[in-house]
Amino acid sequence: MEVLETRKKNKRRWRYASASSGRMAFGLLLPTFILVGFIVIYPLIAAVRLSFLNYKLTEPGEIHFIFVRNYLNMITDRIFWIAIKNTLLFTFCTVSIGFLLGLFMALVIKELQTKYRSLRALFLIPWVIAGVVIGYLFMYMLDVEIGILNYILKKMGIIESFLPWLMRADLAMAAIIVTHVWNQAPFFMIMLTAGLMAIPEEAREAAYLEGANRFQEFRFITIAYLTNVILISTLLMIIRNFNYFPIIYTMTGGGPGYATTTMVLHIFTTAFEKFNMGSASAIGTTWLFILICLSMLYTRMMKESF
C-alpha cells in the first residue's frame, strides 16, 4: 500500500511540475507571440481585408466593399501573367545556376589544402554586399557607352558594336539573372561546404573499396549526404528570389516595357505608382498563397528525405 501511495504522490508531483513548466514556458513565449502577431499576423489579415475593398489612395472617399472584383481584374490583367512568367523564369534560372556554381565552388574549396581554405571568405563578399550597391555596380558595368563588359567583348572580337544590355528586352532579363547569380552563389557555396565537411570519410572509402569511380562516388555518396542541405538551401533561395526586389528595381525598374517585371515589382508599382492598394493586396495575397503551397510541397519532400 505504501508503494502505491508513493507512486500516486509522485504522479501528482510530476503533473503539477509539468503544468507549472507549461505555464512558465507560455509566459516566457507570450511576448514573442504578441510581437509576431503585430509584425506578421495583423498586417497579413489587413492585407487580405484590403484585397476585398476598392481602396485607392487617389480616391479616399470611395472606399467600399467590392468582394472579388480585385481578383477578377487581376486574372484578366495581361501584366499579371507577364509578371508570373518573368518571376518563374528569374527564380528558376538564378536558383539552378547559382546552385551549380555554388556546388562547383564548394567542391573546389574542399580540395584545396588547409592553409588555402581561408580563401572561402573572399567568395562571400558578393553575398554581404547590399543588393542596391550590386545593382548600381552592374548597371555601370553593362552600360551601353561606358560599360567595361562591352569594351572587353569588343576587344575580344565577340561583338562588333556595343550592346544595350539593359535596354533590350531579350538581354535585360539575362543581365539581371547573371547579376543575381553573382550575388547569391556564395550562399550555396557556404551551405554546401558545410554539408561536404559533414560527410564521413568512411563512406567514401567504402564506395571506393566496392569499385566505385569518382563520378559514382559523387552521385551515390556526396549527393545522397547533401540532399537535406540542397532542399533547405534551394527552398530558402526560391522564397527569397520570388520576392527579390533591390537588384531588379535598381538595374531596370521592371523594363524595358515589362521584360523584367516580376511579381514583387508588379505589386510595388500597383501600390505606390498607381496607388491602388486594393489591387496590390489582392496580388500579394495570391502570391502568398502560391508561396505557401510551394513551401508545403518542399516540406513534404524534406520529410520524405529525413
Question: Quick gist of this model?
Answer:
This protein has helices at residues 2-50, 69-75, 78-111, 120-123, 125-128, 131-141, 148-155, 169-197, 201-209, 214-242, 246-251, 263-272, 277-305; strands at 53-54, 64-65. It is mostly helical and 306 residues long.
Describe the structure.
This protein is mainly alpha-helical and 306 residues long. It has 13 helices and two strands; from the N terminus they run H-E-E-H-H-H-H-H-H-H-H-H-H-H-H. Strands 1-2 form a two-stranded antiparallel ribbon. The mean pLDDT is 84.
The CATH class of the largest domain, by name, is Mainly Alpha
- How many β-strand stretches? 2
Strands across the major sheet, in which order? 1-2
Q: What are the secondary-structure elements, in order, as H or E?
A: HEEHHHHHHHHHHHH
The CATH topology of the largest domain corresponds to MetI-like fold
First-to-last CA distance: 48 Å
Give the overall form. globular
Low-confidence stretches: none
- Helices, by number, come to 13
Compute the CA-based radius of gyration. Answer: 26 Å
Q: Main beta sheet, described?
A: 2 strands, antiparallel
* CATH architecture designation of the largest domain: Orthogonal Bundle
Number of domains: 2
Structural class: mainly alpha
Task: Report the helical percentage.
Answer: over 70%
Strand proportion, as a percent range, falls in under 5%
Under CATH, the homologous superfamily of the largest domain reads MetI-like
The quaternary state of the protein chains shown equals single chain
Q: Let me know the average pLDDT.
A: 84
